[in-house]
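Kindly review these tokens for lecture notes.

. . .
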Amino acid sequence: MQERNELDLIKKYQEKGYSSNFKCEGGLLMELETKKKYQPKQITIEREHRFEGLSNPSDMSILYVIKTDDGLKGMVTANYGANSDTDIDEFFKNIPKENDLSNKDI
């Protein structure tokens, strides 16, 4: 089923318990409420969704649905393409391939 937009998908995941919010800081991913920081090897990507901007197709974003090794579940959004956030790009490139379940059927 194709979701209408990124906000619909975020809401769907929040309803499934993916409620933690993260940001990239100093090469680590920080959970905003607890301020706990995670290295790439401590993150599992459960799903990945790509979106094109409605008014401008070059405004592209990615929604990562993630779980930490200590059980937090949440989402990270990042721009990709010309307006990408290099810190987030680098962090997600460094997640071990075995921790990326986004292309596997689970």
Observations:
- The chain has a mean pLDDT of 87.
- The chain is about 15% helix and 35% strand.
